[in-house]
Amino acid sequence: MKSKVSWLIVGLAVALAATGCKTPQNQKTIYGYKQKTHDEPPSPPIETPPPVTPPTEPEAVPIWSGSFSNMVADESAFADQTIYFTFDSATIKNAEKSKALVVAAFLQSNPKDDVRITGNCDERGTEEYNRALGERRALAAREALLGAGITPDRIDIISYGEDKPVDPGHNEAAWKQNRRAAFILLKPPQ
Fold first, then answer.
1. Are 180 and 166 in contact (CB under 8 A)?
2. Which CATH number covers residue 98?
3. 155: Cβ–Cβ under 8 A, 6 or more apart, which residues?
4. What is the number of H-type helices and E-type strands within the chain?
5. Residues near 103 by Cβ (< 8 Å), separated by ≥ 6?
6. DSSP string over 115-126
7. 23 in a structural domain
8. Over the stretch 31-57, which tens digit does the pLDDT of each residue have?
9. What DSSP state is assigned to residue 164?
10. Residue 59, pLDDT score
């Protein structure tokens, strides 16, 4: 019985030694020595920053990054070459493929110029889904240009999703105009 009590006492002593003693609030341990310090005032509460207001203009999501920031954009140059898509599709219809070939022919004749392709959707679907669909539409138009011999470093891609409708209406006629991939001519600064 004495040996069990002895082991119990030894176990308690080891447990107390392992947990140690807590340093009092007004003492700091520096290099193993306890030094008394003055009570420090509590730090002021952290202020919450004001909420961030969303931008008023929709922000484009660049998909391809290149050195296009100093280029001058001409949105009207390829206005007639806009590719239109069917609902929930990123496949270029046969009737629309010639539009990409016209853009490619122009770029081959003008090697200093580049192009930006914007992918757009109608308002149906979630914002995230429409951004992804806009990206797929722009990439489909990009693939058509690549197939016609334009190098990837001359093509900038942006998906606007549903953020930049051509027609703000809420009917099939408006939606048909908004499901598109638009080509924008990028010219070097003069």
1. yes
2. 3.30.1330.60
3. 64, 66, 114, 115, 116, 117, 142, 145, 146
4. 4, 8
5. 78, 81, 115, 145, 183
6. EEEEEE--S-S-
7. no
8. 454 555 555 556 566 666 666 555 444
9. S
10. 46
- Phi first, then psi, for residue 37 (nearest 5°) are -120, 165
Mapped onto helix, strand or coil, the DSSP state of residue 95 is helix
- To the question of pTM greater than 0.90 for the whole model, the response is no
Tokens 């992918």 appear where? 119
Whether 174 is covered by a domain: the verdict is: yes
Domain count along the chain: 1
Alpha-helical runs (H) found in the chain:
2-19, 97-109, 127-147, 172-178
Place of tokens 């197939």: 147
Tokens (6 digits) for 63:
């998909």
Domain assignment of residue 98, yes or no: yes
- Tokens representing residue 151 in the block: 């190098």
Give the confidence band of 151 by pLDDT, cuts at 50, 70, 90: very high
What's the pLDDT tens digit per position in 96-142? 999 999 999 999 999 999 999 999 999 999 999 999 999 999 999 99
C-alpha dihedral over 69, 72, 76, 79, to 10 degrees?
-40
- Does residue 121 sit within a domain? yes
Could you tell me the residue range of the domain that residue 162 belongs to? Answer: 61-187
Residue whose C-alpha is closest to residue 84's, from 95, 69, 75: 95
Q: Which two tokens stand for residue 77?
A: 């140059």
